[in-house]
Amino acid sequence: MRNLIVFASHEGQTEQIAERIHRRLLEHSMPSDVLDVVQHSATEIQVEAYDAVLIGSPMHFGRHDPRIRFFIEHNLAFLREIPTAFFSVSLASASKKRKERAEAERLANEFLQSTQWIPPVMDCFAGALKYSKYGWLKRQIMHRIAQRSGEETSFEQDYEYTDWERVDDFADRFATLVRACKRSPELRPRFSEMRLPTREYSLRRVRSKRRTANLYHVVANGGRLNGWVPHTGAFRCMKSPLIGRMCAKRSRTKLGLARTSRKRSQGDLLLGVKQQTNKPLPKLAASQRNGMPIWCRTNR
Ligand SMILES: Cc1cc2nc3c(=O)[nH]c(=O)nc-3n(C[C@H](O)[C@H](O)[C@H](O)COP(=O)(O)O)c2cc1C
User: Fold this and answer.
1) Which residues does 65 contact at the CB level (< 8 Å), separation at least 6?
2) Domain of 83?
3) Under which EC number(s) is this enzyme classified (predicted)?
4) Ligand 1 centroid to 142 CA: how many Å?
5) Tens digits of per-residue pLDDT, 184-243?
6) What residues have CB less than 8 Å from 243, skipping those under 6 apart?
7) How far is the CA of 217 from the centre of ligand 1 (A)?
8) Ligand 1 centroid vs 58 CA: distance in angstroms?
9) Fewer CB under 10 Å: which end of the chain, C or N?
10) Same domain membership, residue 253 and residue 181
């Protein structure tokens, strides 16, 4: 079982993130090859030799790397068959302004949509400001971008904003997906219909645009995972040997509590819940919002 991590990187931050994911996957006993599309052309990389593929691209001038786009388009059919993940690296994701972070997410989603590839695991990571590596013009541009994000920076030093815990969490989710697909190959087609929303994304979308939309997240709780599913009616677990026992309904709070007794290492991040009603969502307390996302699928 071997994974492929493909990335493009201009100043090395996406590469560092790819290396970190590689190390984290090794902790899950999942070896990977880490390949740079700048050094290896997309047509040269034999994706069919791998069981799972993870792709990372930095954002420059609002665009993701064209070589990554080519790689995805070139291997689209195969990528749809296997467990995959995508991460985007940008400064906007490091912004103090929620709007900027949302914009980074929107651009990443738009990029994926344009390639027609839906990786089940996706996240946007904050990148770095590496003034020491920029020429004069780039420095001015980057200084402006940083200012727009609410950061006062100096040319004298480099800045790294990447949240490494979030990167580890991403790698863990990917490992869970790979394990799940290995154990139950029949689930693969289902995974390709799912999307793992990032924390903020799922919440914001629900609360601002369509209050009746689905909102799913889980809170890590000392090795156990509790999933909060706001709904007013019943919700159903997707029956799967991976998911374990869940579902307890709290009608008073109008929150569904999904719980699995499996250990994290066994893959209990994979909670699958299907929302069955479209009634308005209840408000969530701040403490409940800081959860981790879970697998979800709606009947919309
Ligand atoms: C020339 C240039 C343009 C950039 N444009 C954007 C941008 O439009 N939006 C953004 O959020 N970040 C932008 N960034 C920030 C990069 O996404 C960030 O520095 C990231 O860490 C780069 O990853 P890399 O080192 O792997 O290339 C830009 C960086 C450079 C150097």
Assistant:
1) 8, 37, 57, 58
2) 3-191
3) 1.3.3.4
4) 8
5) 665 554 444 444 333 222 222 223 233 333 333 333 222 233 334 333 233 333 333 222
6) 237, 260, 268, 270, 271, 272
7) 30
8) 6
9) C
10) no
